[in-house]
Design goal:
Elements: H1 2-5, H2 8-24, H3 30-43, H4 46-58, H5 60-68, H6 70-76, E1 87-91, E2 96-101, H7 110-113, H8 118-121, H9 123-131, H10 133-141, E3 150-155, E4 161-165, H11 177-181, H12 186-190
Parallel strand pairs: 1-4, 2-3
Length: 202
């Protein structure tokens, strides 16, 4: 599975070929494709989720609202839309690590994470992460968790889309939201990777 998940060059080549085909057949224009890219790079996507996480790390009252009603808390920041109507945030702690999946298809909180990565939609990931989450995290994502940390897998659906509030990295006391924002990664909000460390952005 790891080889399949990591074949990013192959995926990029397929995307480029599909883009060329759509333009050649007159189905889409270069401008329309550029606009779609702009939307998912700047208007929806992981950078918005990172803003929410950074605010939750810095503001305990907002964090409480986020954990109580994620969709409503995100709306406070102007973040909402399709696939974001019923979001639930689950919090990582020193004792518990959370991972999200959609075993039926690829339900995913688009407003805060953008479009799901290809591996998230892969049937092999969807089946394996529920059966052997610790093994999948280690072998497919090189993410090894301590044996005393419980791994919880949350199955998203069209009625409820989960995402993860990762632990705030050590050594970031007194950091601003803008500084904290730089530490958040998409994979940490899915639960298959870590945040950056304070040293990574120092």
């Amino acid at each position: 599975m790891s080889a399949h998940i990591r074949s990013r060059e192959e995926i990029a080549a397929r995307v480029k070929a599909l883009e060329s085909m759509l333009i050649d057949k007159g189905i889409m224009t270069t401008q329309a494709i550029d606009r779609m890219v702009e939307i998912y790079e700047n208007e929806v996507g992981p950078q918005l989720g990172a803003r929410v996480v950074a605010k939750a790390w810095a503001d305990p009252e907002f964090k409480a609202r986020l954990l109580h009603d994620a969709s409503e808390a995100c709306a406070e920041l102007g973040i909402s839309g399709l696939q974001g109507e019923d979001m639930v945030v689950v919090e990582d702690t020193p004792e518990v690590h959370n991972v999200i999946v959609c075993t039926l298809c690829s339900c995913y909180p688009w407003p805060v994470l953008g479009l799901p990565p290809n591996w998230y939609k892969d049937p092999q990931y969807r089946a394996a992460i529920t059966r052997e989450p610790r093994k999948v995290l280690s072998e497919a994502f090189s993410y090894d968790l301590p044996t005393d940390v419980e791994v919880r897998v949350w199955d998203s659906s069209s009625e409820m889309r989960y995402w993860v509030l990762p632990q705030r990295p050590a050594g970031t006391e007194g950091w601003s939201e803008e500084q904290l924002y730089e530490l958040v990664t998409r994979d940490s909000m899915i639960g298959v990777g870590t945040t950056k460390s304070a040293e990574d952005v120092a």
